[in-house]
Please model this.
Amino acid sequence: MILRARHLTKRFGSVVALSDVSFDLRAGEIHALCGENGAGKSTLIKLLSGVHPYGTYAGHIEIDAGEARFRSVRDAAAAGIAVIYQELAFVDELTVAENICLGTEPARWGFWLDRNQAQRRAAEVLARFGIALDPATPMRSLGVAQKQLVEIVKALARDSRILILDEPTAALAEHEVERLLAMLEELRGRGIACIYISHRLDEVFRIADRITVLRDGATVCTLAPAATDASAVVRHMVGREIGELYPRKARLRGPALLEVEDLAVADERGRQRLGGISFALHAGEVLGVGGLMGAGRTELLMHLYGAWGRRTAGRVTLSGRPVPGEPASVLRSGIALVTEDRRRFGLHVEESIAFNLSLSSLGAVSRGGLLRPGAEQKRNADCARSLRLKADKLSAPAGRLSGGNQQKVVLGKALLTGPRVVLLDEPTRGIDIGAKLEIYRLIDGLRADGCAVLLATSELPELIGLSDRILMMRDGAIGGRFEDGAAIRPEDLLRAAIGAAPRPGRL
Model:
């Protein structure tokens, strides 16, 4: 046994985040930690990694059978613990090599950064794990998936004995997931222990030696994958049976609201990124947008919201009127966006939950230019209840919420604007199965209310299960169009995404 947590209890004011949690980890083991958002997973790893120091919690943490009293993250790192959080912690202005060596920089004459040595060290560790990246590349030029891999390599470069991975594959494409899982299997063979946190149960059952489930801040059970199945794990996570995952009711499609005709968009350097895109989005339907990483899904939604790119051709109309070209006007016209990167574009994490909920719709709770606090508080409380937001109080900073509850705040902020068209970019990224079900029902409710939903997601079951029709993007264009979402096969979508299927007519 390399690590043991015994009877851990952690409180934040009146909120009990962990209650008598026990957990252990063996050398050379991959131990999966599962639970809904808000179950206590993030709090547990912050105790194990020294973010919440010794003395701020009850219970004991042992490393190699001796009690660990981490006063800081540096103490935990010295004991061989490295954490890769779901929200990445890179420095955009530095290179790949400088990020990998951050905190352990090679120095020349005691204080000058030895850039050549840093690049050599980074190149060695990148090559060791088969990652084809130039160490001199600026981080800002990389995609989310590549940045995630750099974070993982940075942790591995420090020869940690215990690696904690929080949703490491949430932003990775399938081939990158395969590479990561192979990397973890190699580390297991070297005796490195991993705590693997993921909502993707197929990955958990493929790679984990044991599974521990948390619910409401308490340990529910520890299971061997061979002795259980995904349905049982979900039941332990949510405390109830999950029936039909994707709500699908017959709906009458209304008139076209958002129409896109021969759209072409260039990036800030003038490079063509989107081209020849045409589709109509109707009231009361969900139009799914799929494609491989880099196919242009996010760019399309960000451009429709006026937040990315320069239009070089085509037109976009809402109920026959041209859509404005900047976000504030787009929002006023009736289009709302839930962004993929909630912490960067969706939230002010240091501000309160209430502040974030109200931010896009202050006019609805104002009179004569003055905010009406009573009306704002009532509306926010009603919204929080409808979203089943898990928060002690709406005055708490949004950054203290779990990832799933942060996503609910972003959704609530968008829905309080009363949109006719909702653009959803990876709305369930990093969210547990229980919270996903709530969001799926919310999307179906939008459809029932006559809203038009444009849903971009990398999860094929989600894309098929929620969409009335589907567009598959490839290289910034539409590679396939599918009319009946319920009858579509995943292999057909993949063929369209990689260019192995013909492009049918207009949708």
